[in-house]
From TrEMBL:
Stored Gene3D superfamilies: 3.30.1050.20, dinb family like domain
Name of the protein in question: Mycothiol maleylpyruvate isomerase
Species this protein is from: Streptomyces incarnatus
Span of domain MDMPI C-terminal: 147-227
Domain Mycothiol-dependent maleylpyruvate isomerase metal-binding: 12-139
Keywords attached to this entry: Isomerase
GO molecular function list: isomerase activity
Length: 228
């Protein structure tokens, strides 16, 4: 069972790590490229703040975003802001998400995210946790996949392996982590089974599109995964 209260606490911890790290930056560094193509660090921070508000919308029964165009426009609008404004927005939007998560609710209910995707409300805090952790890495400021909490890494691999299960572009894949855990995914495309083994951080990096898989050992051809 998903423990949403536990995940909300993990979101809070991850947000505090992010805020502490970002507070060490300056305005010039926010304008530098992040690890996400076409995005500066300011874009990443703007996205994180707007994502918190979008997930408040989800929890309160509103559309996650007005439209894809509005989402993109908000990020472009907020990306150039100076450090002080970015930090304040991150803190305030995180507090709004925490308040929405603390409100009494039926956590078993189904909620709608982007592009018609649905999930249980109880999964929303974990989705926010993933946003904070992975985009902290994307900033390229010294926080790496190896620094992620082990619980988060295992659960995000679980989530992504499930997401690619049966995908029409992904052959059958067996994933083995350095801790001996085994995941299976894919199976919707011809080929395979492909056996992939490596450190949990490298597995997560490949599944999440953050690493090219060169750090993994494979039997068979490592497929190119479709974008998330």
């Amino acid at each position: 069972m998903i423990d949403h209260a536990h995940d909300l606490a993990c979101v809070q911890d991850a947000t505090e790590r992010l805020l502490s790290a970002v507070a060490e930056l300056d305005n010039a560094s926010l304008a530098e490229p992040s690890r996400l193509p076409g995005w500066t660090r300011g874009h990443v921070l703007a996205h994180l703040a707007r994502n918190a508000d979008a997930l408040v919308n989800v929890l309160e029964g509103r559309p996650m975003y007005v439209s894809a165009e509005a989402r993109d426009a908000d990020i472009e609008r907020d990306a150039p802001r100076p450090l002080g404004e970015q930090l304040a927005d991150l803190r305030e939007s995180a507090a709004r998400f925490q308040a929405a998560g603390d409100a009494p609710a039926d956590w078993s209910r189904t909620v709608e995210l982007r592009n018609g995707v649905t999930d249980s409300a109880a999964q929303v805090p974990f989705r926010r946790w993933a946003e904070v952790e992975l985009h902290h890495v994307d900033l390229g400021i010294g926080y790496e996949l190896e620094d992620l909490p082990a619980e988060f890494t295992d659960r995000e691999i679980d989530f992504l392996a499930q997401r690619f299960t049966g995908h029409k572009e992904v052959p059958s894949i067996s994933l083995t982590g350095g801790n001996g855990r085994i995941w299976t995914t894919g199976g919707g495309a011809e080929g395979g089974p492909v056996e992939v083994e490596g450190a949990a951080a490298d597995l997560l990096g490949w599944l999440a599109g953050r690493r090219d898989g060169s750090g993994l050992s494979t039997k068979g051809t490592l497929p190119e995964l479709p974008p998330l």
